[in-house]
Write a structure and sequence with these properties.
heterodimer, A: 203 residues, mainly alpha, globular, B: 225 residues, two-stranded antiparallel sheet, 48% helix, elongated
Chain lengths: 203, 225
């Protein structure tokens, strides 16, 4: 059983004091402070967006939109709220909007090769390992794509981002019971997808 | 707890998402049931496979590009054009209401100015005026600002045809718009006065039909009332 990773140091009490000082400066219009906020959160934001949307271009657009919304709504943020959870909510909403606008495509080994991502690889083993990794990523992305929007969001936040069910419920604006039900269904669907794929492969 | 219930709960049990009391029940069932233990192993394997899904390691240039593009967008938003765009987006309802009000005002002014240029024609005397008017009395044609419908009748004053009565001719009055008519119908010996207000407020046609003589042939107003 996995451990639950808390979002930030002061999860129970809201925002971390150091972080709050940075946010306050950004709220007052300090551009450098806002950039520091972006640097602090960008990897996580891009990671979630990629898991939700399945490809780099969409993930980049989502990250940009999310940071722009963060800038627009930062003044409404209060220290009593959990900043990371608040940011997650923004990213989820942005991803929903992007998915609505365009059909999410999954990363493929071919597209990575075309993008020149494998140019820096040195040996054949290296290339093979990367190719396998890329293929696995593609399969899991397809499995996630087979879920409903709410199941996908709940599963990505819980199993891939490691948040607790109560944190997931707060971010998605649902009850814990609903989130547990969505996660349970999502996990069984993922397993069913994987079993079906293995069966096809073994034929 | 039976196998069916455990199969439902195993997905949450595997990741510690059950409440403590339920965890104990599932655990005690698993201790006794081998098939449910096999199912748990399969679930854990699937979860392991899922968690191996890691987003690719993006280069620092990707993150720098995201920051740069975001700051450019923020700068654009802070400019006057961005402010205007935002204001329109946030206040479009008020803007639409103001536009509609301005348009309605313009339309009203246009109609009034337009009708004023063509001269007003008198409005029809109201029912009260008609009933209150005494026989033999000359009533000045009431003048008021015309409505759009009255403008059509400006060039063609109209009146109803005279109806023969026991006492003689009784010239009817116009019911609406256009000319006003006054008559001093009464004893047939007295001259009949017919008064018509034209579109020009300063011009009124008055003629007298002498009493005892044949009345003027009735001019029928063919306008639909």
């Amino acid at each position: 059983m996995t451990e639950n990773r808390s979002l930030s140091l002061s999860y129970q009490g809201g925002c971390d004091p150091l972080l709050w000082r940075l946010i306050e400066r950004a709220q007052k219009g300090d551009k450098a402070a806002f950039e520091d906020l972006m640097v602090r959160s960008e990897r996580r934001v891009v990671s979630i967006a990629w898991k939700m949307l399945g490809n780099e271009d969409d993930a980049r657009d989502a990250a940009q939109d999310a940071f722009f919304r963060l800038y627009k709504y930062l003044k409404s943020y209060r220290a009593s709220e959990d900043f990371d959870g608040w940011l997650y909510r923004i990213v989820i909403n942005v991803c929903r909007d992007i998915r609505r606008k365009r059909k999410a495509s999954t990363v493929s080994y071919e597209s990575e090769r075309d993008a020149g991502a494998l140019e820096s690889l040195v040996s054949e083993d290296d290339i093979e390992a990367k190719a396998i990794e890329s293929q696995q990523r593609q399969i899991v992305a397809q499995a996630l794509d087979s879920l409903s929007k709410k199941e996908r969001e709940a599963l990505v936040l819980r199993d891939l981002e490691g948040l607790s069910t109560s944190e997931v419920a707060r971010i998605l604006g649902s009850s814990e019971t609903t989130v547990r039900s969505q996660i349970s269904t999502a996990r069984s669907k993922i397993k069913a997808f994987k079993d079906r794929l293995l069966k096809q492969y073994r034929r | 707890m039976d196998c069916r219930k455990v199969e439902d709960k195993i997905w949450l049990y595997a990741e510690g998402d059950l409440e403590a009391a339920q965890i104990r029940k599932v655990r005690s069932h698993l201790d006794a049931c081998q098939s449910c233990r096999k199912l748990l192993d399969a679930v854990l394997e699937s979860q392991g496979w899922l968690k191996s899904f890691k987003s690719p390691d993006f280069d620092e240039t990707v993150y720098r590009a995201i920051r740069r593009e975001t700051m450019t967008r923020i700068k654009k938003d802070r400019s006057f054009g961005g402010f205007l765009q935002r204001w329109v987006k946030d206040n479009w309802k008020q803007g639409a209401a103001c536009t509609a009000a301005v348009f309605a005002l313009f339309l009203t002014l246009h109609v009034r100015l337009f009708s004023g240029n063509h001269g007003g024609s008198s409005a029809a005397p109201s029912n009260k005026e008609q009933t209150g008017q005494k026989l033999g009395q000359v009533t000045p044609a009431p003048f008021s600002e015309s409505s759009a419908s009255a403008q059509k009748r400006v060039a063609r004053p109209h009146f109803r045809s005279a109806k023969p009565t026991r006492r003689g001719l009784d010239v009817g009055r116009v019911a609406e718009g256009g000319a006003a008519l006054a008559s001093n119908a009464g004893a047939i010996e007295r001259p009949l006065r017919i008064e018509i207000q034209t579109s020009d407020p300063n011009v009124r046609i008055i003629w007298f039909v002498p009493g005892g003589s044949k009345p003027a042939p009735p001019v029928e107003d063919k306008d639909t009332m």
